[in-house]
Write a structure and sequence with these properties.
Layout lengths: L14 H29 L6 H14 L1 H19 L3 H16 L3 E8 L2 E6 L6 H7 L32 E4 L4 E4 L1 H9 L2 H9 L10 E3 L13 E6 L6 H18 L3 E6 L2 E8 L2 E4 L2 E11 L16 E9 L9 E3 L3 E5 L5 E4 L14 H20 L18 H16 L3 E3 L2 E4 L5 E3 L7 H6 L8 E2 L7 H6 L2 E3 L1 H8 L6 H17 L3 H4 L4 E3 L5 E3 L4 E3 L6 H7 L7 E2 L7 H5 L3 E2 L2 H6 L1 H8 L1 H6 L5 H14 L10 E3 L5 E3 L3 E2 L16 E2 L2 H6 L2 H7 L7 E4 L12 H6 L8 E4 L10 H10 L1 H8 L4 H9 L10 E2 L11 E2 L7 H6 L11 H11 L8 H16 L13 E3 L5 E3 L4 E2 L14 E2 L4 H8 L4 H4 L1 E5 L3 E4 L4 H10 L7 E4 L4 E6 L3 E4 L2 E3 L5 E3 L2 H14 L5
Parallel strand pairs: 1-7, 17-18, 17-19, 22-23, 22-24, 27-28, 31-32, 35-36, 39-43
Antiparallel strand pairs: 1-2, 2-6, 3-4, 3-6, 4-5, 7-8, 8-9, 9-10, 10-11, 11-14, 12-13, 15-16, 20-21, 25-26, 29-30, 33-34, 37-40, 38-39, 40-41, 42-43
Helix pairs in contact: 1-2, 2-3, 3-7, 4-8, 9-10, 16-21, 21-23, 25-26, 29-30, 30-31
Amino acid sequence: MRRPLGCRRRAGIAGARRRAGLRRRCGHGVRSRVAELLSTVLSAPDPFSTAALRDAVLGAWAASPTRFREDANAEEDLLLGGYAEAWFVELAQNAADAARAAGRPGRLRVSLTDRELRVANTGAPLDAAGVAALASLRASAKRDDHGSVGRFGVGFAAVVPVSPEPRIVAADGRGVRFSATRTAEEVAGLPGPAAELARRAGQLPVLRLVWPVDEDEPAPPDGYETEVRLPLRPGTDGEALLAEAREAAPDLLLALPDLAEIAVGETVLARTDDGDVATVGGRRWRLARRSGALDEATADTAVEQRERRTWSVCWALPLDGPLPAGEVLHAPTASGERLTLPARLIATLPLEPDRRRVRPGPLTDALVREAGVAYLDLVESVPPAERTLLVPGPGFPASPLDGLLREALLDVLRDGAWLPGAAGPALAPRRAEWLDVPGAEGLPALLAAADPAFERLVDVPESGPAALQELGVTRVPAAELTERLLRVERPDTWWRDLYAALEPAAETVPGLAEELRALPVPLADGRLAAGAASVLLAEPDADPAVRTVAELGLPGLHVAAPEAVHPLLARLGAGAADPASLLEHPAVRDAVDRSLDDADAGLDPEPLAAAVLGLLGATGDRVAGTGALALPDSEGNPARADELMLPDAALAPLLDPDAPVGVLDGRWATRIPREAFVAAGVLDGFAVVVDEEPVGPDHELHDEDLWWDSLEGGPARVVAVRDLDLVADDAWPAALRLLAAEPDTRAAVLRSGGYTGWWLARNALLGGRAPAYWRLPSASALAGFYDPVPDTGIDETLLAAIGVRAGLVVRSTDDAADLLARLGDPARTPDAGLALAAHAALADALVEELVDVDRLELPERVRSLAGGVVAVDDAVVLDAPWTAAVLPAGELVGGGDPAALAELLDLPLSSDVVAAEIVGEGEPVAWSALPEVLVVCHTLGVDVPAGELRRHEDLRIRLRRPEQGVRSVPAWPDAGGRWHAADPVRALLASLADHAASPTDG
């Protein structure tokens, strides 16, 4: 354990009384040794009175062997604890103190001569007080020198591991030496210490006994006042010691300002100072120093230091690269206190005797605070852009002192006005703000120069915001930035610069674009919109109509000011401000919808009308909803665009005189292109309504709800010609020709299932009749029922689309009633095949539920298979073909599904009317045995029936109804379903027909 500093011993022995005591204790042998010593002193020069010093020490050891053991232990503690590897540091400190005492920059030289390490220095030479201090454990001769480095008087002990025989020589030839060999010889004459030395295996305090150097000891090198000469211990590598000194020299020159030069072998290192920058060995350091005097409250130092009332702190910042790893406190030379700060601390902090650790207490606390103030000086001395590099980074401290310093530095830095502000003046970090938008270079300066709301912004260092966070600088996230920007008033070009600064960050920082959604955007009408998503961007060469609309200031319409447009806005959700998008914009739609009400309220509708017509003229397309645009009519009154027609409209002569359609003001018609008015809904020809996603019959089309109900689930798309109900009855041929001439209207007419064809089929008139009354000229097969359509100059494709008949088709109850009327008209002469086809179409319509029998007025006459008409009371629907052999042909009705036809016409089936039984058994014969049956089956492509039939030479049946009697018939089935036939082919055909009508029958 180290000895407390309070155990200092006096350097000498006072008074003859002490000497007498020594004689009494030591006896005759000692008296002889004293006599010999006195003789030597008188005969050899001893300028530093080393004999008296030795006599005092030896007397103390002889009087108390414990004192010898304590001195040996104390020196051993120093060597083991702190000084064993510090020979060069300690000698350099001594050189610095000597230079300081001399009042001029010091020089130090280290050389190796014949296995003797020599360390020479300039400055104040060795004196008696210095010699006494060297030989007195922990008693420093420098305690009255407030600027000296050495403080404990024990640093010279560091040379003992290198040399057991150190010598110190001054320029005047005077000097002293220490010797382990001679000390052992002296101790051997002291019984108590000799025994202790034996127990210690020869370990003794080398530096307690001092001798003068020999008279022939050479002087130090020229130019140097003092030289320490260290004969190396066996096995000690002198070159390694030189390398060690060479490596330590730069740090020592920096730590010891009183040294200006260190030469190690052939290597010479010098220190030069230029203001606050010191250059050592080619490496530059920026220095910040503070010094002062201590007060009584901080006087907690060792006794040997209590007279030293000054303190100093120096921060050294390397300018040519970072500090090496493992940086420590320099007090002023390297200690064992590890530090993790960006600059080196060189301070007069109180150290433990081993010079490795700082002694805690009020003095340390006070100097740590002063170090914080000096560090602020250092930070303020570097270029503003580099200052944040000096902020201690986050992490665990490397030592207790490191933790204290970090806290002190951060406290001072947080309150000092040193952090470069984006607006120019330096700011205190506690009042500063940093913008959390990585990658937005130049943005803080742009903002700070624009508005006081951002005057506290600072730039984020290239290394990131960690330093700012350590300093407590307030973070400003992107969301808060956008909120503050809502209160900024700057020119449109400034906003474009803002977006340009933000763009790189928005492209690289995940999630930042989403946070910038609310970024304000200046509008063409002078307003400021919150968020790009509601903004439209006009291209530089956009149609003038776009700017016209943008400048209207419509509520909800946000068109960016052209000078502010930047690609970032599109990335943040802004749309294109082209004519088409503007026409679809809800704000424009709302303005159009209320334009007539606004006009009635006295507002001028013309600016909006001109702007919207400009957009429509640019697109050339009709846009749904623009028909509500208020335009002046020929009398100057506002009217909906879709309730007006052009003064020379092609539709004008076709409309009913009472049609509610006005005429556009002629002055407007001459100022604006015709296409724009037509796109707005002003009538020229027929207008087409298009809705890609209809939700209901809300397109203001006549009878649209009926058409909608006729469709299963409604239409997927509406393409319809409007205002058809305004056509005069006698103008339909011309109206249809106009519809056929325009591609859009023609397509609407021809659209399958579309409104236009549906409506025309029910309402258009050709020759005063509905289109379905007529047949196409090419549909000559229908001539027995329908007359050809009058020649109107309309092609058959369009005529067929509006309902002119191309074939026998029954789509509704009305169609069924019309066809039944034609079938029962005696004046018409359809052939039997056409009548069958007509009945088949009627039966199919009933099966498909296209006809409501309850709404159908039944005819009085029906068309028979014989071609004529027959009263319904006499008619029978033929469902069993073989019954035709016993019923009058003029009373039979056939075609299609017999049951459906009988239901439609409310007639009986022939199988219900006829009842008969076969006379005779007949001859059984297989179907496949009849050649004529085989030929017919092959011809028809059907299988030959299995089983057999009963063949009769003359097949007779006995009728029970409709009348009684025996009749000859070609074929007839019996009650068991077996066929009897006089004509097997007739039986085959009847069987096939029966199976076709009843496919599930056996």
